[in-house]
Design brief:
binds copper (II) ion; 28 strands; binds CU-O-CU linkage; 6-stranded mixed beta sheet; 3 domains; Immunoglobulin-like
Length: about 400
């Protein structure tokens, strides 16, 4: 897609079950947000639905169903969504790496057992096979001296990733589609929870003919090699790295007014081990092991979900997300991008905007945004097992309920 240009996407449901499509991270009208029962009726088998919107922001996004997510996303219904800049930055090449995680049986088929409640109360359904763009990665061919932009997308159900590029210094230029001050990540490690994206620029300064590993070492003791950067034997395309600026032009995001912002707090609760007692008065309590502020909504979104909180249209908010559990959670808010101001009260550098923020066990983060997009928006953990087992809520912006069916 191109920034600021309208698109129309016809979704033809050839599945034998309901579906919808959510355009993750795109700031669009509520009626196009793809949450069944909340922003639209589910698309029934054999039905067609037309999504039409104009992406305001250039960047790296993705799309996936918001119905029966564990199975539909877990079996591969997802894709990268690139909104091109009006003036793309000067790089030699651009790569998209949509990384997914699968649990395969010995027969090579996707293993059954989605929605295991024991797993849902822990780290979620983590698989045994990681792919890039749907295939078990072979080497990534590169040439010495070139500058490559890689759009990393974590489209896994549950796997958190921490990528390292051996012998290279990736520079982060955008997070969740939103440009940031170009910076090298802490410890050279790119941390990507499910649904998160990072755009990096890599100057290929390795030796011609050599291979360098790209590893994921997020989980202790089970690090693995994702792929290799495989240099051709050809001489460098240029003697020195490109001397062009790395920064991308900013998107037209509304700047929250921190001095007048109203505050809210969302406390993440539940799970196995170490959580404090959790009181649940939400729906479907039988399938809930997680909650936000004591309320558990399970599944993917459905009609009649009462909002956890209501925000005034056009006002700035600082929302404290407090992880009161022993597990990691990538928390996604629909319809808005937000600034991450603090983590555990410490200021976050590099002017980070996001739509999904990864919280470590017991960590808190303050996010700030202008509630400028009216509707009932989901806020949920993007570890899909956590979402469907209760770590989900609705935030209402404005009192206009026209998006509700
Ligand atoms: Cu990728 Cu409800 O979102
Ligand atoms: Cu979670």
């Amino acid at each position: 897609m191109r920034q600021g240009e309208p698109v129309r996407i016809v979704v033809d449901n050839k599945l034998e079950q309901d579906t919808t499509v959510h355009w993750h991270g795109i700031r669009l009208p509520i009626s196009m947000d793809g949450v069944p029962g909340i922003s639209q009726l589910p698309i029934r088998p054999g039905e067609t639905f037309v999504y039409a919107f104009t992406p305001p922001d250039a960047g790296t996004f993705w799309y996936h169903p918001h119905a029966n997510s564990l199975q539909q996303l877990g079996r591969g219904l997802a894709g990268p969504l690139i909104v091109e800049e009006k003036e793309p930055p000067p790089v030699d090449r651009e790569l998209v790496w949509m990384v997914m995680d699968w649990r395969l049986g010995t027969d090579g088929h996707i293993a059954a057992g989605f929605g295991n409640m024991m797993e849902a109360g822990m780290a979620g359904r983590i698989g045994n096979t990681v792919t890039i763009n749907g295939i078990v990665p072979a080497d990534e061919p590169v040439r010495s001296g070139e500058r490559v932009r890689i759009r990393l997308i974590n489209a896994a159900l549950a796997r958190i990733m921490a990528l390292r590029f051996q012998g290279h210094r990736p520079v982060v230029v955008a997070i969740d589609g939103q440009p940031c001050d170009p910076h090298e990540p802490a410890g050279g490690r790119l941390l990507l929870g499910p649904a998160m994206r990072i755009d990096v620029v890599l100057d290929m300064q390795g030796d011609p003919g050599r291979r360098y590993t790209v590893t994921d070492d997020f989980y202790d003791g089970i690090d693995y090699t994702l792929t290799h950067l495989a240099y051709s034997a050809a001489p460098p395309v240029r003697p020195h790295p490109l001397d062009a600026p790395l920064g991308l032009s900013r998107n037209p995001l509304p700047e929250p007014d921190i001095t007048t912002a109203e505050r809210r707090e969302l406390v993440l609760q539940g799970g196995m081990m170490g959580g404090r007692g959790m009181r649940m008065d939400g729906m479907d309590m039988g399938r809930a092991v997680w909650a936000i502020n004591g309320m558990s909504m399970t599944g993917d979104g459905h009609a009649g979900m009462p909002p956890l909180t209501t925000l005034e249209l056009g006002r700035s908010y600082i929302v404290r997300l407090r992880n009161d559990t022993a597990w990691w959670h990538p928390i996604h808010l629909h319809g808005h991008s937000f600034r991450v101001l603090h983590r555990n009260e410490a200021t976050v550098p590099n002017a980070i905007w996001s739509d999904t923020v990864l919280l470590a066990p017991q960590e808190s983060a303050d996010i700030a945004f202008v509630a400028d997009n009216p509707g009932d928006w989901m806020v949920h953990c993007h570890v899909t097992d956590h979402q469907t087992a209760g770590m989900m809520a609705v935030v209402r912006v404005g009192d206009d309920q026209s998006g509700r069916r």
